[in-house]
Amino acid sequence: MKEIILNSPSVAEIGRTCVKDGILYLVMSASGCGFMFTGKKLTIDIGCDSDSLNDGHECNFPRMAILINGRTAVKKVISSRRESFCIVDSEVPVTVEIRIIKLSEAAYSIAEVYPAITDDGAEIVPSDESGFCIEFIGDSITCGYGVDDANIDSLFSSCAENAMKSYSYLTAEILGARYSMFSASGFGVVSGYTDDGTIHPDEVIPLYYESLGFSFSQIAGERTQDIKWDFGRFVPQLIVINLGTNDWSFCKNDLHRVAEFEERYLKFLEIVRKNNPDAEILCVLGIMETELFPAIERVCRRFGDDHVRFFEQRRQDGTLGYSCNCHPSEDTHRQRAEELCEFIKNTYPQLVGQQ
């Protein structure tokens, strides 16, 4: 038997990940890796970070999926320091495509993927990750918050989070695109979600966008928000920003707060453009809240960049159900993904035509 570290060039890394001491750390929603395996035996060990385990709240542990040839073979919350999954056990060599995907978000836990254990004659090569590249920047909607729990009164739990059912993941899937997600539940541009109007200035995406991401957990003693992200590792041709839902809880109809939101959004566009000079940028808002869309439209016009556009997503009305905390249901996510795909196809035919 032998061990193979699951990092480039052995695998195709998906989303914002980090490798230290042979361990692949999956941070953001839907981050992971993909590879073609040829051999008889394949075992994958996945662990929950020690910070989350020590905290002891099971609702925060990482939720994972392992897919074999596109079918989910494992879907599980990782509730121990290291769990082992026998993926292939064959008398003769077989060739299968493997994808390991983190279903839950970065803020509450990090998944640790250990080197694959294989038979001596096995080979691992990166899966085909062709197609144009999309980056999604957002909040709980982008994370797939609560989509596997139809009880609107439920509280947050990673057990119900499933980034593979989010409109963002589905949009990439429908378009045949590579993707990366940068999202955190409750986060905004000027303030995170607030139920009493008090500003939450630390719960904003712009503070962390140039890092590996925000998390309460650490990687080998280092905070993820202190690890600088290398924008050369994933170069998106299209960036979809879906922020403003949580900001509305702070802004409401206060014109001064809305004006502050616009200024912060404008500055964030500058950060995104600086790090992605050649990308098309699509600013969207909707599904849950749409009140700040006029402000976003004004910002896009002020930015004065012909490659920055805007699109309002239809607000959910309950006809397709809800998930926990009145977040979008799986059917709503899929419908909005299909609508977004139509807009992208019509607006960026040069990108979609690369498939």
H-E string = EEEEEHEEEEEEEHHEEEEHHEHEHH
Q: List the total number of helices.
A: 8
Number of E strands: 18
Report the principal-axis shape: globular
Low-confidence stretches: none
What helical percentage do the residues reach? 10-25%
The structure class reads: alpha+beta
The overall pLDDT average reads 95
Strand content: 25-35%
Sheet of most strands: 11 strands, antiparallel
Give the quaternary arrangement of the chains. Answer: single chain
Q: Radius of gyration, Cα only, in angstroms?
A: 20 Å
Intertermini distance: 39 Å
List keywords for this structure.
globular, 11-stranded antiparallel β-sheet, 5-stranded parallel β-sheet, alpha+beta, 355 residues
What does this structure look like?
With 355 residues, this protein is α+β, with helices and mostly antiparallel strands. The chain is 22% helix and 30% strand. It has 8 helices and 18 strands. It has helices at 50-55, 140-143, 167-175, 247-251, 255-275, 293-303, 330-347, 349-352; strands at residues 2-4, 12-14, 17-20, 23-26, 32-48, 63-68, 71-77, 83-102, 111-113, 116-118, 123-126, 133-138, 178-183, 218-219, 222-223, 238-242, 280-286, 308-313. Strand 3 and strand 4 form a beta hairpin. Helix 3 packs across helix 7 (330-347) and helix 5 (255-275) crosses helix 6.
